[in-house]
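User: My instructor asked us to take a sequence, write out its structure as tokens, and then describe one feature of it. I'm not sure where to start. Here is the sequence I was given:
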Amino acid sequence: QVQLVESGGGLVQPGGSLSLSCAASGTIFSIVAMYWYRQVPGKERELVAGINNGGAADYANSVKGRFSISRDNGANTVYLQMNSLKPEDTGVYYCNGKIYSSMTEWSDVWGQGTQVTVSS
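Assistant: Let's start with the prediction itself. The structure tokens for your sequence are:
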């Protein structure tokens, strides 16, 4: 079974920076793509950024130019560097991975979430 564990959330002032990480563990054959989502109470979970196994990344328009997603394939870890943070970036950030545990079996795996609060 594959697990994702996020870390790095916290409280930061507007304009500040935070870095999140998400480590995958368990029986991993390959990781196709990994994503960061965020959610605030009363709203649907929003896709923030994604990266495939070749390193190609994409971002929601709301975070382009401010957030950067990267991955360490050897460590099965994905990162989200968040700069120039705004109060509207506040939310619970979830890591998601499309992960193969064998040549034919894959799962859509979610982390437990980490809170990011941007406030003065």
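For the description part of your assignment, you could build on this observation: The two ends are 40 Å apart (CA to CA). Try explaining in your own words what that tells you about the chain.
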